[in-house]
Amino acid sequence: MATPVLSALEFACRMPKAELHVHIEGTLEPDLAFAAARRNGLVLPYASEEALHAAKAFTDLQSFLDLYYACADVLRTSRDFADLMFAYLERAHRDGVVHAEIFFDPQTHTARGIPFDVVMEGLNAGRVEGVRRFGIGSRLILCFLRHLSEDEAFATLAQAQPFLDDIDGFGLDSSERGHPPSKFARVFARVRALGKPVVAHAGEEGPASYITEALDLLGAVRIDHGVRALEDPAVVRRLAAEGIALTVCPLSNVRLCVFPTMKDHVLPALMAAGVRVTINSDDPAYFGGYMNDNIRAVDAAFGFDGAAWAAIGRNSIEASFAAPADKARWLADIERFAVSVGIKP
Ligand code: HPA
Ligand code: ZN
Fold it and tell me: Fewer CB within 10 Å, N side or C side of the chain?
């Protein structure tokens, strides 16, 4: 084969791909936060965008969540949610994302008195505009907050009932330690009975056994993060054998001190063990970057070749909830793009 005309990194940045792990509240950039605060007559506890940026030195998941929930307080109107969604989709499109499965945390908003329909109306308006302007497809995944009770999750599911056509899956996020998946077994049984796919954050800060619980007790079809799987070889073997995708978020893991540096990240070890990994941005406004910033950081640490990046791109499409015809088209697009730039996919 001729010498590639693009580096492996450029190929990875430009290939069509899906983002499967991004929290819409985590895409709230300081400029949007201050604009929403001004419009809504609120004062953020930070004097400037720079001061807010400086607050993003996290020591663990909880230290991040405290800031993340505080900033989400500026989101009050449908317009705020629409602007947030549109800004993310515009940014993701620039990174070659053709399809995004986006988490939202309704309990963060309904607990502040923001009606569920205000959140949904805004998010959907942003999604419609994203398709119209950039052709970028999206899905919404409702996450229950695991630091709250299962009864509160049931109440949220009841509130979501009128909007189920616009909610393509259900997940579990927030403080992991001390809040195992088993706490939510009953509400996810109800979710499955509704015919909705289940995903769950597990094995980010929590132990590998939480991954097993998410699979066996919640019926999760993907695991969000899952990087602590490597602490139990049996869990790794199971993920590989069953083709369970992990939505790995490299910059997030380093910023939340799950790994001291990117070179300590287990992504290459997971790939070597045959686990289907994808790369995602999690909370890009808080962790130093969007999809391609994560790809660049991984490239700088590990220097994957084009074939490895093509496999990661294919994983992202295959593990998504997109329609089969769309998946087939994007997989063919990755293949065609790779061949056109001299990369063996
Ligand atoms: N983990 C758990 N909960 C979250 C995260 C995360 O990375 N981001 C937003 N909520
Ligand atoms: Zn997450």
Answer: N
